[in-house]
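2024-03-11 09:14:02 INFO queue: dequeued item GGDEF domain-containing protein, len=631
2024-03-11 09:14:02 INFO validating residues
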Amino acid sequence: MQFSRILLDLITRHITVLICVVFILINGMFYSAAKHDHVSQINAQLQYTQQIIELALPLDIIKPLSPVILEWQLINTAGYTKKRKIFGKSWNAASTKLPVSGGHIFLVHKSMLSAYFIQFFIVNLILFLTIFIILIVAHLNLHKHWKVLIQLEAWANRYDKNEDFKFYLTNKSYNLVNTIRNVIQAKNEAQKSGNKADHYIRSQTFLDNHTGLGNRLYFEHRLDSVLQEEDKVYGAVLIIQFEMLDTIRDRDGKHAVALILQQYSEILKQYVDDTAQSVVSRISPNDFAILLPYVDGNEVERIALSILRMSQKVKLPDYIDTNVICHIGVDMYDREDTTFKILAEADMALRAAQLHGPSGWFMYDSGQLPASEIKGSVRWRTAIQSALDNDDFVLLFQPVIGVDMRVHHHEVLARMQGSDDELINAKVFFPMAKKCGLIPLIDRQVLLSVVGAMEKGNLTPISINIHIDSWLNKDFCNWLIEFLKVNTELAKYFIFEISEFELAQNAKQLSSMFAAVRRFQVQFMIDQVGLYVLDTGYLDYLDVNYLKLHQSLVNQIQARPENQMFIRSLQNVVADKKIMIFATGVESEQEITTLERLGINGVQGHFVKRPSEKIESENKAINIDGDSLDL
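2024-03-11 09:14:37 INFO prediction written
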């Protein structure tokens, strides 16, 4: 309800009560005075009549002393009227008796109502007119101010929907309102400036200024973090070189190259996939790199040929040989490789592709990919659908530990059982599930399984990853609301995770759904923060409880001041939002120490605590698994 309406209701109720009190008070005073006067007139008439009778004077001389008296009678002891005299009549009369010698006096007079009705009516009419005039004058004096309040509320509603809406009051009497408006505007501008400064710091550290893609440092950090992951690690790195850019730069200048670079970067951005956590970067003036986790040789070949085909569509100067535009070198990696080795082998593959002459691609080694993981799209769809039908998803729970070394919550890690009973990481099957449109079904199955596990184990906060495909699916959202209604008591333990990349692109669209889920006391966590360099403006639209730093920011953070600066700038952004920050992928005591010094609220990783099918009690103190883990 609007404030002006609430205020109006309060004023109306209080004025009504005040008017009633005034009416009751004045009428009470009038009644008391009238009653006293009425009794006095009756007593005076009785005494006057009694004295005439006792003095044996002629009774005809008895007259009414006031208009209240209507009639008097002298009645003997036998009950007979000896003398009677009428002075008037009334529509409402009363009588009074007074004993005298030889009988009593019977006095008929007007009642209080008939005697003072006209005076009562006049008094109340005057009172009503007085109050009415006061209200009219007050209304005229307050109406101009009330209109300003209503206008301010209308402006506030418009400002809530559009922060660019401006308003200002010209009346000098409202300088306070204008001052408050200016202060709020200054605060918003400062906050936006802080977000811009934060984004600028991070972009200068990790982004290429010309294309908006990550730079070499960004790419190497992401590749390092992939190689540090706990489960199976494999995939491909592609180095794409557009060597004719040097020729264009020499002949037409940097501006011409910038326009072409932008077109090539738009082609490569298509391969940024948050589900697969693929990364695209510009690692040198003419070279781009793509990190593709969990892909096989067939998928790499499809992507390489697609890039070659799309690069031919970019319009180039006539002096450029269109047969020699793009060369791609590919290296397939696994856990045993290092970042330096992978990039060196991809570079050698690039040189091999260049030796062939025309635009083309070359793979350094495709024999590293586990044969068990090579599946076509049809086989993947069949395997995932079978897992859904047979409930072949296994849930592991990894504790997230606070700085006090107590369990803060658990994260659910979904695994799919393969044909040989091997557990397949979600990072492997989720990209294929996305292509097949099965992610909402998987998220639904995971939520149902989580409820079953919570009912059997300890009630402790559980973080559950829900993919953007599910949030944007109307059927899933309707089901989720019904699911939360059924599990109201458990809902307050849910923490829904969503990746920063997808959330930043859909923040406004998801705000209403998040608000609906919030009504069930569900909390929200933004996952993979820092995997991509993004503006944190989404925090202005959504009520978020936690941020979780991506492993690439945490890996070797004690030796990476640029990552520490990233975290400090992020902390400045969330300083007034009461958002806790956690770090995932922690793999050493030095990382934990550095993160604690930076003020991170909690940590997660195999070094801290391994995933298991058991849910630990909330706030339970635990020991770090550390290097005893067999990787």
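2024-03-11 09:14:37 INFO annotate: Residues 172-205 form one domain.
2024-03-11 09:14:38 INFO item closed
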